[in-house]
# Entry
Amino acid sequence: MKTTAAVLTISDKGARGERVDTSGPAVRKMLEDAGYAVVYTAVLPDELEQIKDELVLCADEKKISLVMTTGGTGFSPRDVTPEATLSVIERETRGIPEAMRYASLQITPRGCLSRSVAGIRGKTLIVNLPGSEKAAKENLAAVLDAIGHGLEMLACDGSTDQSH
# Structure
């Protein structure tokens, strides 16, 4: 059985139909190429409560294993994706955004400006990606293999074999 995933694009202009979303479809393709079943996608405005509601819907009601967001992680006053994510997760997974920022810094000094976060809610891993298609793909590529192992551990009911 394939691991389920959702891709949520956070973009005021995308939600209003003023900009074509390219990052969401690019993330979806990378996930599908890696063997995930992308069962849900949405384009949302940069509204804190709406983002929170959508994350909770994916985790609690739809029971999706991996929720990837793209957008809303910069310095703009409307960029609230990390705050929405932090408000709904139960445990942070700080190594994921650290690895993404490290990979980004190998490409551009501006990689340190990402405010992406990641964390666990129940049996769901939520990861924030940047909004640009290029940066979203680079960031996801940096952590995709590790995320697969993390999801295996998250799906376990007890402790896991730590030998690898």
Q: What stands out?
A: The radius of gyration is 15 Å. Helices lie at 12-15, 23-33, 48-61, 81-88, 95-105, 133-155. The beta strands are 4-10, 37-44, 66-70, 91-92, 118-121, 124-129. The mean pLDDT is 95.
